[in-house]
Amino acid sequence: MYQYKTKGTCSSEIDVDLEGDTVKSVRIIGGCNGNGKGICALVEGMKADEAIRRLKGIKCGFKSTSCPDQLAIALLQAKEQQAHK
Questions:
Q1: Which end of the chain is more exposed for a tag (fewer CB within 10 A), N or C?
Q2: Strands 22-30, 2-5: parallel, antiparallel or unpaired by DSSP?
Q3: Are 18 and 79 in contact (CB under 8 A)?
């Protein structure tokens, strides 16, 4: 399980569990509960690279990031951590 502290969003943390190159589970702590659960449900079972491609760069209102964008960053970092094991 990789824990990522979010930056610039209402959520405070994203927990990511990868199984190989596939997203096994995601949990977004804080933020919009329904949206967070929806995002998690959509990416579970998806290849991490595909989730990153779809989510990276999404903005929330006038913010420079969003929970989906932060999830893309969390997935990138989780992949890096997994590669160094």
A1: C
A2: unpaired
A3: yes
